[in-house]
Amino acid sequence: MRLSQFFLPTLKETPSEAQIVSHRLMLRAGMVRQLTSGIYSWLPLGYRVLKKIEQIVREEQDAVGCNELLMPTIQPAELWQESGRYDDYGLEMLRITDRHDRQMLFGPTNEEAITDIFRKDVRSYKQLPQLLYHIQWKFRDEIRPRFGVMRGREFLMKDAYSFDIDYESSRHAYNKMFLAYCRTFTRLGVKAIPMVADTGPIGGDLSHEFIILADTGESEVFCDQKWLAKDLSGKGVDLNDRTALENWVQGTLVDYAATEEKHDPANSPISGDDLIATRGIEVGHIFHFGTKYSEPMGATVLGPDGKEVPVMMGSYGIGVSRLVGALIEASHDENGIIWPDAVAPYKVGLINLRTGDDECDAACEDAYAKLSNAGIEVLYDDRDIRAGGKFADMDLIGLPWQIVIGPKGLKNGVVELKNRRTGEKTEVTFEAALNQIS
Ligand code: ATP
Ligand code: MG
Ligand code: MG
Ligand code: MG
């Protein structure tokens, strides 16, 4: 992509409405623009990152055998009256009336909708287990939308749902999702710690929130410092071996980590220097809730003994759009964003130090073609502006690599290769730079 043909409205000044660094940087880097409170448009650069995160989330859901579908954003009120949540959900639910005076709502989550799909077509335990997910926009009329996309009103969520015949199988589904989440966040280049979370009035011990530690997070969290060095990549775990998977999950969870609701300072198993008490961002939440929806909504199957039983369910969310902000909170410096490779909108930024100079232009065109041909995503700053502005914008948008081509270097047959994360700059031939990036 040539910057001269790209829509990248970067800002020099810090927008006054943004209170935290990720919000400031997303506005300054031209990634999003607010349409109205808590509702954002994703501009081309931001949308590329959102799609990359979404794709990694998708691949790891697929890898544990979860089937993707797509449910609508608008739901009928009746379904929520059946589950009993229509009144409980309160003001966070955006309620809509259609032209026939029917009550509708913009889905804040999809337990009711998926249970309805399930009950209409699944009759027997032989059709179980089922694991289904979608990646869809949600609306919650948050009382205090803030921090940009981190607490929006409209936001993109991956939500998955499991259906099983008994507790043991349901727990296996939970463990599969636990593994998928560990793998997802590892691939995204961030540490998200699974913490024991409140299960609300339903009870049970099976709920974990995946939390990225950050001072700007909205949750108060407590965990053993051992988590900081823990490998959560989930490599080599056999997800079809129930016992092995259960052991891996329990082994991972041996070290203490709890959200505020579950942390009791008087009875904490760890204290002193071992205990990290800090804040964090909830980027995922997995939850086993048994028959909470299947019972009132009549989602039953015939068991092996011929008796009808309500299915055991769980739900599993990831805040896809929140992650864009959360990754920036976790990775930036005073000059801008530093993208983890896996989600960077482009891998390399190519800077032409003197647009209009024949030799420079030709060298840049050649480099641009070679990078593109090598399958490397490149953003070429071919704009006719001063070099300082190009450097500042490139640092701001945080691409992992920069290749700078100018008249001086060309005389010596070299370009400058800069690593955005380390700041390290080297003068090398273009071929050597290409080699290192590939
Ligand atoms: P929070 O505690 O931040 O309000 P939640 O517990 O209400 O989140 P869940 O119902 O668990 O959210 O939804 C699953 C995921 O969706 C959350 O873990 C979070 O990453 C994301 N999410 C929830 N609300 C928002 C929001 N207003 N804006 C962006 N992402 C959100
Ligand atoms: Mg909430
Ligand atoms: Mg929460
Ligand atoms: Mg939650």
Automatic annotation (TrEMBL):
<feature type="domain" description="Aminoacyl-transfer RNA synthetases class-II family profile">
    <location>
        <begin position="33"/>
        <end position="340"/>
    </location>
</feature>
<dbReference type="GO" id="GO:0006433">
    <property type="term" value="P:prolyl-tRNA aminoacylation"/>
</dbReference>
<keyword id="KW-0547">Nucleotide-binding</keyword>
<dbReference type="InterPro" id="IPR023716">
    <property type="entry name" value="Prolyl-tRNA_ligase_IIa_type2"/>
</dbReference>
<dbReference type="InterPro" id="IPR002314">
    <property type="entry name" value="aa-tRNA-synt_IIb"/>
</dbReference>
<keyword id="KW-0436">Ligase</keyword>
<dbReference type="InterPro" id="IPR006195">
    <property type="entry name" value="aa-tRNA-synth_II"/>
</dbReference>
<dbReference type="GO" id="GO:0004827">
    <property type="term" value="F:proline-tRNA ligase activity"/>
</dbReference>
<dbReference type="InterPro" id="IPR004500">
    <property type="entry name" value="Pro-tRNA-synth_IIa_bac-type"/>
</dbReference>
<dbReference type="InterPro" id="IPR045864">
    <property type="entry name" value="aa-tRNA-synth_II/BPL/LPL"/>
</dbReference>
<dbReference type="Pfam" id="PF00587">
    <property type="entry name" value="tRNA-synt_2b"/>
</dbReference>
<comment type="similarity">
    <text>Belongs to the class-II aminoacyl-tRNA synthetase family. ProS type 2 subfamily.</text>
</comment>
<dbReference type="InterPro" id="IPR002316">
    <property type="entry name" value="Pro-tRNA-ligase_IIa"/>
</dbReference>
<keyword id="KW-0648">Protein biosynthesis</keyword>
<dbReference type="GO" id="GO:0005524">
    <property type="term" value="F:ATP binding"/>
</dbReference>
<dbReference type="InterPro" id="IPR004154">
    <property type="entry name" value="Anticodon-bd"/>
</dbReference>
<dbReference type="InterPro" id="IPR033730">
    <property type="entry name" value="ProRS_core_prok"/>
</dbReference>
<comment type="subunit">
    <text>Homodimer.</text>
</comment>
<comment type="function">
    <text>Catalyzes the attachment of proline to tRNA(Pro) in a two-step reaction: proline is first activated by ATP to form Pro-AMP and then transferred to the acceptor end of tRNA(Pro).</text>
</comment>
<dbReference type="Pfam" id="PF03129">
    <property type="entry name" value="HGTP_anticodon"/>
</dbReference>
<dbReference type="InterPro" id="IPR050062">
    <property type="entry name" value="Pro-tRNA_synthetase"/>
</dbReference>
<dbReference type="InterPro" id="IPR036621">
    <property type="entry name" value="Anticodon-bd_dom_sf"/>
</dbReference>
<dbReference type="GO" id="GO:0005829">
    <property type="term" value="C:cytosol"/>
</dbReference>
<keyword id="KW-0030">Aminoacyl-tRNA synthetase</keyword>
<dbReference type="InterPro" id="IPR044140">
    <property type="entry name" value="ProRS_anticodon_short"/>
</dbReference>
<keyword id="KW-0067">ATP-binding</keyword>
<keyword id="KW-0963">Cytoplasm</keyword>
<protein>
    <recommendedName>
        <fullName>Proline--tRNA ligase</fullName>
        <ecNumber>6.1.1.15</ecNumber>
    </recommendedName>
</protein>
